[in-house]
Each structure stands twice: as C-alpha cells, then as structure tokens.
Amino acid sequence: MDSLDAFATGKLEALEAGRLRRTLVPTERGSGAAAARRGRTLVSFSCNDYLGLSHHPRVIAAAQAAVASHGAGSGGSRLVTGDHPYLGALEDGLARHKGTEAALVFGSGYLANLGITPALAGRGDLVLLDALSHACMWAGARLTGARVLTFRHNDPGDLAAQLAEHRPHYGRALVLTERVFSMDGDRAPLGDILGIAETFDAWTLVDDAHGIGVVEDGPRAPLEMGTLSKALGSYGGYLCASRPVIDLMTSRARSFVYTTGLPPASAAAALEALTILEAEPDRRARPLTLARRFTARLGLPEAESAVVPVLVGEAQAALDISAALEASGFLVVAIRPPTVPAGTARLRVAFSAAHDEAQVDALAEAVAVLTGRA
C-alpha cells in the first residue's frame, strides 16, 4: 500500500470507529414525497423539496422545453457563451421576488457563498459569522484572508459586543447568518441583526436557502443569497442585491466568473417554480403547518420552519433510529458530526407540501415510540 492509500485507509478506519463514515445510497425520488431505496418504497422526510415542485408537471415541462430549444448544457462560462436567455429571465424574477434591483445566478448555493464574501472582503477586513452558519459560508469567509470571528448562535447581544470590540480595527466588515438554519430549523432574529450591523457599518449577508418560498417574511438584508435546489425544486444558487453589487460580482466573484453557466433546463425549471410558488400561498404555508402538527404531537418546541430536529445524542443511536424508521416505511436520514456539533446527532425531519396529515401523524407516532416519547 502506498502512502496515499495508507493515509486514506487510516482516515476511513477512524471515521468508521466513530460511526461517522459516509456512504452513498442510491435513491429514486417520485412525486408525493415518495422515495425508493434498496427496493422498498418509502415516504421521504429528508428531502428539501419543501413545496413538492421538483415533480410538478409544469416545472418538468419547462425543463423539457428548455432542453429541446437550448440543449442540455450552457456550453461555457456566462461571460463567454453560457449566458442563455433563461438566466436573465430567472434573475429578473428573483430580483422582483426579493425586492432588489438585481440578481445573479450561480452554479449552486455553495458556489455562491464561495464567491460573494471574498468579492467583498479581504485582508484587513472583518467577517463575523453565526456559530452555526453553513459550511459554505465558512468556506467563503476563510477564502477572504480577512479576520474571521463568530458570534453566539442567534445572539444579537454577542454580535454587538464583538463588533464594538473589533470593528474599529478593520476596514470593511461583513455579518453572515441564515434566515432558517438548515440543521436546527430555527430562524435568525434578522431585525436585530440588521440594526446592529448597520450601526457598526457592517454589511449583512443572509443565506435564505431554507427559507425562500416557505418562511421568508420579515426584513431583508442588503445581500440575500440562496439556492434553487430546495423550495424551487431545481438546481443552482443566486444573490439578490443592488445593481452595483451585482455588477461587481459579475466581474469579481471567482466562483461565478470561472464556472460554466447553469444548464437551460435548471434555470427554466426554477423560473417556473418561482411563478407557481408566488401564485399559490396555500402551498407555501403547508410545510410549516405540517411541521407544527408534528412538533405538537411530540411535545417539541413549536416549529419555526419546515425543518424539525429530533435530537438523539450519539451518532450510533441516530443511525439505529433512522434504520428502524426506514424499516417502518419512512426515510429520515441521521445527521452526525461534523455537520452538527459532537453529542448532538439527530434526525432532521423536513416537511413538504407533498406530505399529507396521515403521513405526518404516522411518522410522529413511530418517532415517539423509538425515542421514548410515546
């Protein structure tokens, strides 16, 4: 065994010992929250398809028409030949939805966060992140070369204290947080955060990946990014902001400049999904309604979003409960460190407009039995 394979094998053995090794499981998704794994049909409570739009006939038809008219791929970066018409139409729609002057579509939400923060901050600047910010926000912050600090999760007081202490010593400052936190399902106190950031002349970037289309009420940040792959049922990322900021990103966000443009089918599907979600408020309200039905039946804190964590503790325990739920016909994937802090392995339950009340009640009963809440 050469040194590279020896290194990889040793790392894998350590991950296996901690029950933290990841493996791929082929999954066939269908309409109505259906998923098939290992030859069994399951009801999925792990998909981020919050509005059930990835299988909506109009969304599928829009993607098919885009492929037929513009091909399977964009053919190049957007600054070369990849700026097909669907992208401009989608950006116009996203900007209108968010109430901003402009928008820019990236290849994914991860790529958006890799590009946005480094285009705005560098050495001699300050970036402050909520302690539970998504990995891609951390990655973008670290690429800046700026001083990177954290503030306690959803704690405006700690943010204010950090800015008061450190802001005078740096040039530009950014505050990074999420509207809905992907693993906890709770919502940031954005009004407070935006007010504090403005007081200290810091620019706020909000990741709205898990909020758009479901719970995006309240104040908007000057930098609103998100993904097309969850409530919008497609794939890609975006930033909504002022026209000068978007023009700067077009020239300076490396993850935009140096990647191939989003395929026509993905952009067309997201644009049609955006049209549907704006026209159907009942669809948008349904995931939160179902999530609150679930938390009420289990005696959990009332859901703030379509995501509900059921904390278990150790990784093996979460894996065992997930396997038992799968045996009962439910797909609820166990979430383990380092995605979440050590000792907080959990079931991450995601609710969709595609679920019905009977499915939610049946899952609640199964979880109650397996976690001792019955």
TrEMBL record:
<dbReference type="GO" id="GO:0009102">
    <property type="term" value="P:biotin biosynthetic process"/>
</dbReference>
<keyword id="KW-0808">Transferase</keyword>
<comment type="similarity">
    <text>Belongs to the class-II pyridoxal-phosphate-dependent aminotransferase family. BioF subfamily.</text>
</comment>
<dbReference type="InterPro" id="IPR050087">
    <property type="entry name" value="AON_synthase_class-II"/>
</dbReference>
<keyword id="KW-0093">Biotin biosynthesis</keyword>
<keyword id="KW-0663">Pyridoxal phosphate</keyword>
<dbReference type="InterPro" id="IPR004839">
    <property type="entry name" value="Aminotransferase_I/II_large"/>
</dbReference>
<dbReference type="InterPro" id="IPR015422">
    <property type="entry name" value="PyrdxlP-dep_Trfase_small"/>
</dbReference>
<comment type="subunit">
    <text>Homodimer.</text>
</comment>
<dbReference type="InterPro" id="IPR001917">
    <property type="entry name" value="Aminotrans_II_pyridoxalP_BS"/>
</dbReference>
<dbReference type="Pfam" id="PF00155">
    <property type="entry name" value="Aminotran_1_2"/>
</dbReference>
<dbReference type="GO" id="GO:0008710">
    <property type="term" value="F:8-amino-7-oxononanoate synthase activity"/>
</dbReference>
<dbReference type="GO" id="GO:0030170">
    <property type="term" value="F:pyridoxal phosphate binding"/>
</dbReference>
<keyword id="KW-0012">Acyltransferase</keyword>
<comment type="pathway">
    <text>Cofactor biosynthesis; biotin biosynthesis.</text>
</comment>
<protein>
    <recommendedName>
        <fullName>8-amino-7-oxononanoate synthase</fullName>
        <ecNumber>2.3.1.47</ecNumber>
    </recommendedName>
</protein>
<dbReference type="InterPro" id="IPR015424">
    <property type="entry name" value="PyrdxlP-dep_Trfase"/>
</dbReference>
<dbReference type="InterPro" id="IPR015421">
    <property type="entry name" value="PyrdxlP-dep_Trfase_major"/>
</dbReference>
<feature type="domain" description="Aminotransferase class I/classII large">
    <location>
        <begin position="42"/>
        <end position="367"/>
    </location>
</feature>
